[in-house]
Amino acid sequence: MEYLEWRHVFKLDPAKEISDEALKRVCESGTDAILVGGTDGITLDLVLDLLVRVRRYKVPVALEISSIECVSPGFDFYFIPSVLNSTQTTWVKDLQIEAIKEFGDFLNWDELVPEGYCILNPDCKVAHLTEAKTSLSEEDVIAHARLAEYIFKLPIFYVEYSGVYGNPNMVRAAKNVLTNTRLFYGGGITSVDQATEMAKIADTIIVGNHIYNNLHEALETVSAVKRISL
Ligand code: 1GP
What we know:
Blueprint: E1 8-12, H1 20-27, E2 33-36, H2 44-54, E3 61-64, E4 77-83, H3 89-103, E5 112-119, H4 125-130, H5 138-151, E6 156-160, H6 168-177, E7 182-186, H7 192-199, E8 204-207, H8 210-213, H9 215-227
Parallel strand pairs: 1-2, 1-8, 2-3, 3-4, 4-5, 5-6, 6-7, 7-8
The protein binds SN-glycerol-1-phosphate.
């Protein structure tokens, strides 16, 4: 599947405003994909609006599903997160069960991409929402990565520091024990140096917030990541 080749991804939040000019630069930046997702304030209208605008460009676009009310047809892929270090089964599998009960007979399973999240920033919204146990040691992160690959057989293990730049040692610890499962890293990338450092470790680098804070710097991360081969 093509998402297994992605090295750089921009994550766009439907609840945040972005001008047509900025969106054009993001979509034509050479990034491998646009991932549409966020934690709160998302409505179906906002998702549809962003989908239509991104569809003007050739870049693949995936929806990371955070609530079933905001799902629409028209994306190339649907990423289905499970928060492996949540303390609540809601975020690990209950919401997924609800969605499968409602849509299971109609789903195109080939478009669905399950992701195992490991949230390591205790202060980010998604950590609070999912009541994630974020105080993990390297040994814990390794166990979560192995759970993703060898028990749940997930194609993606996502080390999430949303909002802050993460500890490369934690990311490396996960990478060292993964073979087939792809390692996504996201969180606090604001510079070429940070993008380069994480691209030397993780398979796929996700840049989110900085698109809205400093577009020029965010765009520079694309070529920085593409220069590094693992
Ligand atoms: C968020 O991992 C992504 O889900 C990207 O993080 O917004 O901090 O870049 P940032």
